[in-house]
Amino acid sequence: MATVITPKPENSTVVDNQIKTSQKKYKMITENVNVYYGNYLAVKNISIKFPEKSVTALIGPSGCGKTTFLRCLNRMHDMTKSARVEGKVMIDDIDLYDKSIDPIYHRRKVGMVFQKPNPFPTMSIYDNVIAGVRLNGVRDKKILDEIVEDSLKMAYLWDEVKDELKKPAIELSGGQQQRLCIARALAIQPEVLLMDEPASALDPIATQKIEETITELKKDFCIIIITHNMQQAVRVSDYTGFMYLGDLIEFRETKKLFTDPKNELTAKYVQGHFG
């Protein structure tokens, strides 16, 4: 039987606010976020500041609330009748859960890449990239061509597919499909990019390509990534949050969290004692 470790009270959360770049601007801030499914509290009172042009990794065992929390940041729980979100999610001082905010407009500001590559199978590479852009009313062929090229370049896929843009997206390899999904998310010009285990279904070579893409993208975007691969978190992220049973146990610079964790639970998790 799996051992259940009980986290310390919520006020024991370790959040390292002594970030060296104290003048760094925060692109997204969550304040006291709770998520309920009916009466079940799945995410508990989470407050995090996500710096712009950086990668933040969320780690923790399966079922700890990482994906539930991530979906808050894109208002995806709006589509689940039993879900309820409390607290604030701020982008540039605008609360995305304010009643005056249009959820569709918000989703253009926060792109999402899912665990498994999900290109539209009946569409070409070209049409996959601009699917969201067309929904927003863009029809000019020259503009669409520029968006496709720019987005595929940012996703480090352009050189591999530029001569076969009419090819069905489903014919790409798994790693290429995932980078295509990243390009599709980038095409709508988001300010924040969410990635839920973007390399978990890929082979090591494809995973390396995704990690290289993430490293380059952080020059322009605030990226929040969920990963079960702790080595991946170390390789790609600047900051890491460890979650357990819906609580944020510790949030610090990645190197500090892995080499000098302040919470006993964090230390046990990163040392592989449970997971």
Number of helices: 11
Which consecutive residue ranges, at least 5 long each, have pLDDT under 50? 1-11, 17-22
Element pattern in H and E = EEEEHEEHEHHHHHEHEHEEHH
Percent of residues in helices comes to: 25-40%
N-to-C terminal Cα separation, in Å?
13 Å
Topology at a glance:
Elements: E1 14-15, E2 26-37, E3 40-51, E4 54-59, H1 66-72, E5 83-91, E6 94-95, H2 103-109, E7 110-113, H3 125-129, H4 131-135, H5 141-154, H6 158-161, H7 174-187, E8 192-196, H8 204-217, E9 222-226, H9 230-236, E10 239-244, E11 247-253, H10 254-259, H11 264-270
Parallel strand pairs: 1-11, 4-9, 4-10, 7-8, 8-9
Antiparallel strand pairs: 2-3, 2-5, 5-6, 10-11
Helix pairs in contact: 5-7, 7-8
Can you give a write-up of this model?
The chain is α/β, with parallel strands linked by helices and 275 residues long. Helix content is 33%, strand content 25%. Strands 1-11-10-4-9-8-7 form a seven-stranded mixed sheet, with helices on both faces. Strands 3-2-5-6 form a four-stranded antiparallel sheet, with helices on one face. α5 (141-154) crosses α7 (174-187) and α7 packs parallel to α8 (204-217). The protein is globular, with a radius of gyration of 19 Å. The two termini are 13 Å apart.
